[in-house]
Amino acid sequence: MGERKYFGTDGIRGRANITPMTAEVALRVGLAAGKLFMSGDDRRHLVVIGKDTRLSGYMIEPALVAGFASVGMDVRTFGPIPTPGVAMMTRSMRADLGVMISASHNDYADNGIKLFGPDGYKLSDEIELKIEAMMDAGLDEGLAPSSQLGRVKRIDEAPWRYSEIAKAAFPKHLSLAGLRVAVDCANGAAYRVAPTTLFELGAEVCAVGVSPSGTNINADCGSTHPETVAAAVKQYRADIGIALDGDADRLIICDEKGQVVDGDQIMALIARDWARRGVLRGGGVVATVMSNLGLERVLKADGLTLERTKVGDRYVMERMREGGFNLGGEQSGHLILHDHATTGDGLMAALQVLAVLVESGKPMSELARQFDPVPQLLQNVRFTSGKPLDDARVKAAIQEGEAALNGQGRLLVRPSGTEKLIRVMAEGDDAALVKRVVADVAAAVKAAG
Q1: Catalytic site residues?
Q2: pLDDT digit string (tens) for 80-105?
Q3: How open is the CA angle 315-351-88, to the nearest 5 degrees?
């Protein structure tokens, strides 16, 4: 695979107004992606564009629009809408391409551009590399004749169409009536649509993180700061707390006592519920190498498998599509419900948890502990030069660590995709042993790098 200049593991991302997150790069994305997805027949081609609430969205969106319109593509802009909403609307409106402007859980100073194909899935590495190659061409190449320029319209009801799709995924015979739900929207893309959806399904909603200013997205709120929704649960005496991130594609939950529940516990809860109801497909769940060993064990006890992929929701999705799975996700709260969505969806996942809560009649604290997590330790080790993982000392330390854990745990050593870091993670039943294994491997990496 070629060397990437703009695209990372999840679209293009960076500090707003610093390359690659400038208006010029956005313009080039519009020109290149527009040309690539226009090829073929002579019908009108359409791109849909959503965004979160970052200030820099006002700069990135018009630049993308100009690029797409100048190659002859029609554009529909949605304003603030969750990432999964853009994926859904791309399919629903038969668009050729969907674009989400967001840097997910990062702070307001960052922004990003994610692209979805006509099927609502994130673009493949190959297509992203094709777009990159075309982005460096001249800005005046391949433009549409004056009479064939794209037209642009704002579609204000797009978030509500997404809301209707989300509500349809909630079991018909259930209602959230009598339930008090605290929801933290991270001052982000779901600040209107999430509270409204929960209210329309019958809940009493206590919403925080619903006053976006352009500079307060994810600021001490949302899924990366679960203490905020935990405080709201206690303040409003809510039955459950739901925390989304800036673009609402991930979810963290807390129970009525304010105790935080991570993505692994949520996956176990939904998987076991779906298996009981006979709707879990693929015979198990797809998660990443970071998911806790406790999740693997509880699923195994139920006769279900846990398949692991590299870190990144796109790799989870790829494996789900290959193996016919309908549930997958990450410990961080990216949950993919493939019957309902083509990408991680925090609101959709929250509704599945709420369905179990309502139907079981149990308090969330009882449902939240699907398994006891195995002690897990992660250490990031900086290095300056070379490839520490090729060093003989590091290889020896990894072998020794694996031998010490011997079937009672896991050791995972991997490079960061974005920084000069080696991530050393171990987990096992013996916390002291886990600590020692991580320390030994980290010391070897430091010595090597």
Answers
A1: 104
A2: 999 999 999 999 999 999 999 999 99
A3: 55
